[in-house]
Structure formats: structure tokens, C-alpha cells
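Study this pair:
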Amino acid sequence: MKAGIILASFIIYSMIGFIYESLLCSIREKKFIKRGLCFGPYCPIYGFCAIVTYMLSYKISGIFWVFLIAVAINSVVEYVSSFFMDKSCGFKLWDYSWRKYNLNGRICLAGAVGFGIASTAICRYVQPVLEKILFDIPETKLLMISIALCMIVIFDMILSLGSIKFFEKIRGALKPLF
């Protein structure tokens, strides 16, 4: 798979993840909820998991094995991301402790199965169609646009994490006053 297609797919799945998360939470809360760590309309964890799962499983013929790879990748990435955010920034973006069969509230069986099914569908049905569409874009143009968009996401992540750390310092400094 070419770099431009990988990067463009990452951006697309990150945006789909943002839409999914925001819709799910907005419906649940009956008001608009912007989900994700970043300022922009993307959740990079979705793009990362989709691409890694696809790259590790595209030559595997058995759909059950693709599903198991997807469950493993999504669970490990979700757990590590949650752990990192909790330990480095002091907050959780998600908490599954109310669900059955959860591991420290960071991952749960229902979520793992759901992400496994979604990633399997992406690997088997969505990504092949997306690749055909992206192949129609001149390779150099696709690569340049994809790199630019990925740089925006990376810059956004740095700003987002920086602002979290900044507000944590302010909150800590103001805490004795209240």
C-alpha cells in the first residue's frame, strides 16, 4: 500500500471516528457533544487502529483471524491510550468501569467486540473500495495533501495536550484559593 493511501485512510477513519463518537454521545446526552482529545474533527485513535489492523491483516484469508487481530489491536491501543492520558494528564476520556467484563475501566468486552466487528468490516469491505477511489487521485497530489493533513492532526494533538497541561497547572495554582 502506498504512503499517500495509508495517510489519507488514516485521516478519513479518524474523521469517521470523530463523527461516530460525537453522534453516539450526542444521542445519549440529547445535546451536541464534541468528542475526542483534539480541537479538530478527528479522533486519531480510530484512524491508527483501522490502518494498523488493515496492514497486519490484509493478506489473511480467514475473517475470524482478521476479527481476532482487530480485537487485539483495538484493545491494546485503547488500553495504552487510556493509561497514557490518565497518567500524563490526569483524566480519562472514557470509562468502562460500569460495563461487565472491563479491565480497569479502560477497555471492556463489548467495546472490544464492537471495534473488532467494525475493523473487520473496514478491512474486508470499506478499505478496498476506498483504495480504488484514492488510486484515481494522482499519487504525488494525494501524498502531499495527506502529509499536510497529517501535519495538521499532529500539530492539533500537540496543542491539545499542551492546553490540557496548561489548564491543569492553572487549576492546581488556583485550587488553594477555593
